[in-house]
Amino acid sequence: MGTDTANHPNHRPEAANGKGASRQRAREASAEIELRGHIIDSYILPRVWGAIEDAGAHFRVVEMQVGQSETEPSYARIEVIAHSKKRLTELLNQLQQLGAMPAAPRDIRTARVTQPGVLPDDFYSTTNLPTFVSLDGRWIEVERIEMDVAILIDRAAGRAMACPMHEARVGDEVVVGFDGVRVEPLERPRQREVFGFMQGGASSERAKALAIAEVAEAMRAARAHGGKILFVLGPAVVHTAAREHIATLIRRGYIQTIFGGNAIIAHDIEAAMFGTSLGIDLKTGQPVEHGHRNHLRAINAVRAAGSLEAARAQGLLGNGIVAAALDHGVELVLAGSIRDDGPMPGVITDSMVAQNRMRAAVQGIEVAVMAASMLHAIATGNMLPATVHCVVVDINPAVVTKLADRGTTQAMGLVTDVELFLQALAETLK
User: Fold this and answer.
1) Does 403 score more than 90 pLDDT?
2) Domain boundaries, the chain
């Protein structure tokens, strides 16, 4: 149905008569966009209007149809007017990320890679939202979507794939510009869904029991149909004596993949061998004499064994995280850093190799729990599609909000002690 927007604060006012107004209209550029879906209750339409206003541009609603039921989508056709063609192009690119499409879409434009690992200047940089490209008049979904990568086109196979910059090869055909690209923003769920308790960002005042129950329900749902659950772990999981809860969740089948660094397994194995973490007795909380050497002794012992598996056979791993992961086939992707001691066998010291291993491992992940980790959590968030349910748990609110600041806007946060969270989660999933 049509709608009158003359009184809307974002609506373009009629220009005054006179030569000045005529010159202004001559310089202006306009284009029509379309929005489809649950664009009103998902706040997509208001966000589009807000973006137009923030850009100093105007709009005119050409047509609007409002869905009359929860399942019926809405539709809007809007003319966007900017003060120059350049500004209009920039604005249309921005609106595209919110789900807007040109009213007359065109096929993608592409260019060839001419240097290994170097993309064409105008390459399209992705978001982590579901993305489609128009190829020969047909919309195809971009596979393995993640943020901040290019789109590789395989015309023979009729496929489009996310392509990190360092993987671009000479002759590869990649998307340039914004023509023929469609981004689908996440719509507000029609019913209350898992993780609904966390809407609104990070807070230390959330109802913890409700939060944990909802995370547990998401994990149950994923496991029920074979979806994978990822835990990203920082060494504080061991320092706070929470390792036994992770091992319990592994044994119950609630963790299929673990991301971390050298520290998480070094301190887990230190705890198994010496009962300490960074030289602190995990039972008494007191420092142990010469305990600062224990993590080095643990690393040295495993290096002498030759591998984590060999160390497990020699009885060095106890019943902690690494032991449970090896016993239950959990995939461990351990990305090292410049500050690592040792490192432990199995830690990937080449960052590009680690990236590729992580990218392969996140396929099929439905729930990601990031516990007491900042750098690995941010790296993981950059690789996850926006459709993955993410929860980041940390005692530091800055860590919880930083993930969203880095672009993983679907990640919701819980500010709490990680040991208490993991203990209650394991108890809920008993």
Assistant:
1) no
2) 1-104, 105-189, 196-428
